[in-house]
Design a protein that fits this description.
Radius of gyration: 23 Å
Structural class: mainly alpha
Oligomer: single chain
């Protein structure tokens, strides 16, 4: 009964948000609460929610201060050179822009944190997509898939969980998987090329001069006055100016390039004299994350406080920066705490345990010698419908035990368990995905409808490459 209710609860949630009948926050709270009553454990709902909130509170804190930190770094101009470099590559070609999104997301994913990846990628690419009227779900989908492949890095989470659950060395799991993961990343780039060609066919290709020409003059006139440092305000002003007239000259293009990216080159929040301090602070912060010198929430709390203090020593300026990023902070942290209700009920009622046992028990005996393949296939839906902790600490040991009974090593099972990560990164139980859709101003249901089929295909590509190379 709990198995049926668990799958029904997840399906109900997905259907309602994809049909836009409920907002994700409302669905994450109300649907599990209702099913908790159906299960007959309504009296324990409070305990389940508190347990869920307690387990996700560090994640929520990390996201809150990470958004503030990277928001400040964007404000002060740390990523302006990256943005300009992307512009030079992408120009105004939708195909290049989509491929550039995948490349940027993959590179930034080296830090091992999905939220960081999405904040930097969306901040850099969102103005391009908006200005050219490109599909924003293409941006979120490509970024999520690229990050999903890279999320398998030993410091990214899944590999470490698999190693811990099966008492293996993380490097023994990850290093042999590199060729298969590389094929998966190439698959994401190939898919980005296909999606980019589709966007190019739909929109056509403009030269950068053609895109900028209608508003170059107004940009130059308002450059000094628009120095509020509010990136959303700058984008809004661009939209309002879209009907303006004027003709640009070659000399005007450098400044217009920056405005095209939604980053005002004359904004008051720029701190060029502190560029190398901010770069060093960011590198140190990411290094500390990878080396695990301190818990990630603590690192971002300290980093945000230091960044604000050094770059904006005056209290009114600090309050202005916090206010500028408050909407993103509230949206994301609210979504995380709402997700805590969902996960708390799933785990507290025992639905997750019953779902995983049912799936494992229904594996045919003849598939025993192929448990690595079975694990790879199961990891695609299971890591989408449950948290990584639930899958790697609850389901994976059972799969590994079944595999060992048929002569399949735990290492093969562990490697196969990484296959589902490209889809996992778009799971409603992953807090980082709310950073992605929130900053991109995309409905979670729209993102889900678009990305599920492509992410599942990417996971199958990784699995196929692993089998072909004899890794799995």
């Amino acid at each position: 009964m709990l198995t049926i209710l668990g799958f029904t609860m997840i399906a109900t949630f997905l259907v309602l948000i994809m049909l836009k009948k409920m907002s994700p926050i409302a669905a994450l709270v109300l649907i599990p609460a209702l099913f908790c009553v159906f299960v007959g454990k309504g009296a324990k709902l409070g305990d389940y929610v508190i347990d869920g909130v307690t387990s996700l509170a560090p994640t929520a804190a990390m996201l809150m201060f990470a958004i503030v930190y990277f928001g400040v770094m964007i404000d002060v101009g740390l990523f302006d050179p990256i943005v300009r470099g992307i512009l030079k590559f992408c120009k105004a070609d939708p195909l290049r822009i989509v491929v550039g999104t995948a490349v940027l997301a993959a590179i930034v994913s080296l830090d091992g944190d999905g939220s960081t990846t999405f904040m930097i990628t969306v901040s850099a690419m969102y103005p391009l997509y908006k200005r050219l009227k490109m599909s924003l779900v293409v941006m979120t989908g490509v970024a999520a898939m690229a990050n999903g492949v890279m999320n398998t890095l030993p410091w990214g989470g899944p590999t470490a969980r698999a190693a811990t659950a099966l008492k293996l060395d993380a490097s023994d799991i990850f290093v042999p998987m590199i060729p298969a993961l590389a094929v998966g990343l190439l698959g994401v780039l190939a898919l980005s090329y296909v999606l980019g060609r589709r966007e190019r066919k739909r929109l056509g290709v403009l030269t950068l001069d053609e895109v900028l020409e209608p508003e170059t003059e107004t940009v130059l006139v308002g450059a000094g006055a628009g120095a509020s440092g509010d990136r959303d305000g700058a984008v809004a002003k661009q939209a309002a100016r879209a009907g303006g007239s004027g003709s640009g000259t070659d000399a005007d293009l450098p400044e217009a390039d920056d405005d095209f990216q939604g980053l005002d080159p004359n904004r008051a929040t720029l701190r060029p004299k502190l560029y190398w301090f901010n770069a060093l602070l960011t590198v140190t912060l990411l290094t500390a994350m990878i080396m695990e010198w301190l818990p990630i929430p603590v690192l971002f709390l300290l980093g945000a406080a230091l960044a604000l203090t050094v770059n904006f020593p005056h209290m009114p300026d600090q309050k202005a920066r916090l206010g500028a990023h408050a909407e993103n902070v509230l949206n994301v942290s609210g979504m995380v705490f709402a997700a805590a209700v969902f996960t708390g009920v799933l785990q507290g009622t025992g639905m997750v345990d019953h779902m995983s046992k049912w799936l494992v028990s229904n594996i045919p005996d003849g598939m025993g010698p192929h448990m690595a393949l079975v694990t790879g296939v199961l990891s695609i839906p299971l890591t989408y419908f449950m948290s990584n902790d639930g899958f790697y600490f609850g389901v994976l040991p059972v799969l590994a035990e079944a595999g060992q009974a048929h002569g399949v090593s735990s290492l093969e099972i562990a490697r196969a368990s990484l296959v589902g990560q490209p889809l996992h990164m778009s799971s409603p139980l992953v807090p980082a995905v709310y950073v992605l859709v929130g900053m991109a101003k995309v409905e979670f249901g729209d993102h889900t409808r678009f990305v599920v089929k492509w992410a599942a295909l990417t996971s199958l590509v990784v699995l196929g490459a692993g089998i072909l190379f004899g890794i799995i």
